[in-house]
């Protein structure tokens, strides 16, 4: 069986968040299960992509309304990724330094999807499944099933994975002429809330829809940024499959990014060496418990709570807090300002730093995830793998992966999104830290939990098999 994943991100070539991690790791595990897995992403103007060796396998053009754009498909030659990667090179729209956040993102995402399908028309051995990720590729299921030009692809089953239903990629009907000719009687498939909504369209047209955790699937029926009714209506084809993590990359024994590698036997000294580095770098006291946050500084992640949470915790508790992230400029500047108020107890690195994130997983004592919405969350799974105890709000994938110590589990959980709940959880963290025997016992247990893709990749294979047409 051959599966093609179409995505905007794929680690290590393009990563903004967890989508990149998932598309950079699930294909490896699928390949190990004898499912030929290929990934197609845009050719971005980044050092990592520019430095690759590749072979040009297709040259073509695509139309967006009255404009025609040339593009090519480059096949990456390196075997290091564990699966085949293709890149869509399109000079004007896709060859840019960043993945998202351009004014013409609508045009960019459409160009990517049209290029992928124009290329597939020419491919001799077509994929058995096209697996789309998020709204950026949500129109593919519509295009293959409705657009005359792509009629020869109509029997290829499509799967759409929703990593985050907050973002839906809506655009107005002024741009309807970007969509190649289709039967206008079916225009309703594009519509949601009087605009063209790629995520809603994907949900309507894909053969199967998955979310990245079972709890998130349940939650979407009640809270899906306007798509609740649609998801309930399409319930029969929806399934929640928990994300996994890449155990090769996220392995404290071999991780080249950490200060000292460690395994189960030297977890205490290994983690201490990483904590020591963090304490020197950020001016902390190594004897105090270190609470960390890593992530996008956005409302969904509860980032707006962080500044007040830091003040509240540091006024009452003898702890250190480190925040790594970027996002909302107001949150960023409030977090920066706080440094003056709590020197030696609080610090922040505003920006994206993959290496620093690995050292934090390997050296901090507790990971804070006060998310409002968390479709899966990978941070808590990386934390467990590295022996870092997660403090989470019980929501989405966090609910599916973290069990509270009071329920015979290994993490600290709370239910509400407010400073008081997070504060109480931090306080419980301090109490746990003061009981070093229990704290270390938990650390030793959590590193044994297997959240690798082994399990979930099998669920995807079952899903693909159920869709495969008889030969
Ligand atoms: P999301 O995709 O919603 O941002 P996930 O928990 O699924 O959340 O994945 C986030 C990924 O991005 C993790 O690999 C995390 O370590 C990484 N990450 C987020 N922010 C940063 C940052 N500022 N620096 C380094 N890595 C980050
Ligand atoms: C999204 C979600 C996050 C999830 C990730 C990978 O970015 O916000 O919870 O882990 O996708 O599926």
Largest sheet descriptor: 9 strands, mixed
What CATH calls the topology of the largest domain is Rossmann fold
Give every kind of bound small molecule, once each.
Answer: adenosine-5'-diphosphate, alpha-D-glucopyranose
The structure class reads alpha/beta
Tally of discrete structural domains: 2
Q: Can you tell me the CATH superfamily of the largest domain?
A: Glycogen Phosphorylase B
First-to-last CA distance: 11 Å
Strand order of the largest sheet: 3-4-5-2-1-6-7-10-11
The total count of strands amounts to: 17
Q: Measured on Cα atoms, how large is the radius of gyration?
A: 23 Å
Put simply, the count of helices is: 16
Q: Mind telling me which CATH architecture of the largest domain this is?
A: 3-Layer(aba) Sandwich
Average per-residue pLDDT, rounded, comes to: 97
Are there runs of 5+ residues with pLDDT below 50, and where?
none
What spatial form do the alpha-carbon principal axes imply? globular
Q: Roughly how much helix do the residues carry, as a percent range?
A: 25-40%
Fraction of residues in β-strands: 15-25%
Which CATH class of the largest domain applies here? Alpha Beta
């Amino acid at each position: 069986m051959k599966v093609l994943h179409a995505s905007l991100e794929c680690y290590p070539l393009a990563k903004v968040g967890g989508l990149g991690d998932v598309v950079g790791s699930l294909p490896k595990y699928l390949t190990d299960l004898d499912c030929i897995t290929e990934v197609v992403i845009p050719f971005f103007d980044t050092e990592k992509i520019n430095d690759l060796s590749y072979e040009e396998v297709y040259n073509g053009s695509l139309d967006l309304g009255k404009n025609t754009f040339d593009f090519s498909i480059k096949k990456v030659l390196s075997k290091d990724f564990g699966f085949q990667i293709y890149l869509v090179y399109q000079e004007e729209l896709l060859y840019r330094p960043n993945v998202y956040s351009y004014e013409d993102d609508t045009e960019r995402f459409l160009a990517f999807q049209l290029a992928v399908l124009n290329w597939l028309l020419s491919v001799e051995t077509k994929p058995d499944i096209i697996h789309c990720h998020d709204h950026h590729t949500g129109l593919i299921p519509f295009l293959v099933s409705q657009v005359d030009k792509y009629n020869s692809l109509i029997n290829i089953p499509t799967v759409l994975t929703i990593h985050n239903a907050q973002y839906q990629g809506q655009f107005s009907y002024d741009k309807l002429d970007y969509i190649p000719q289709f039967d206008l009687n079916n225009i309703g498939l594009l519509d949601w809330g009087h605009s063209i909504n790629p995520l809603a369209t994907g949900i309507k047209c894909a053969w199967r829809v998955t979310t990245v955790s079972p709890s998130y699937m349940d939650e979407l029926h009640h809270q899906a940024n306007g798509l609740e009714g649609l998801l309930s209506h399409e319930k029969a084809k929806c399934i929640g499959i928990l994300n996994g993590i890449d155990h090769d990359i996220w392995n404290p024994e071999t991780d080249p990014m950490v200060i000292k590698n460690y395994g189960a036997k030297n977890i205490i000294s290994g983690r201490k060496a990483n904590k020591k580095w963090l304490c020197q770098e950020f001016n902390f006291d190594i004897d105090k418990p270190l609470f960390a946050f890593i992530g996008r500084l956005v409302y969904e992640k509860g980032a707006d709570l962080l500044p007040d949470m830091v003040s509240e915790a540091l006024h009452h508790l003898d702890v250190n807090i480190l925040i790594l992230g970027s996002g909302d400029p107001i949150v960023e500047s409030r977090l920066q300002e706080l440094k003056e108020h709590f020197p030696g107890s609080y610090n922040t690195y505003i920006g994206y730093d993959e290496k620093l994130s690995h050292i934090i997983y390997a050296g901090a004592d507790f990971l804070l995830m006060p998310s409002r919405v968390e479709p899966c969350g990978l941070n808590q799974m990386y934390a467990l793998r590295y022996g870092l105890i997660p403090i989470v709000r019980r929501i989405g994938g966090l609910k599916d992966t973290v069990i509270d110590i009071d329920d015979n589990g290994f993490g600290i959980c709370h239910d509400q999104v407010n400073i008081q709940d997070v504060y109480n959880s931090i306080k419980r963290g301090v109490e746990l830290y003061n009981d070093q025997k229990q704290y270390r016992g938990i650390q030793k247990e959590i590193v044994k939990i297997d959240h690798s893709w082994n399990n979930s990749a099998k669920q995807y294979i079952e899903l693909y098999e159920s869709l495969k047409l008889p030969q």
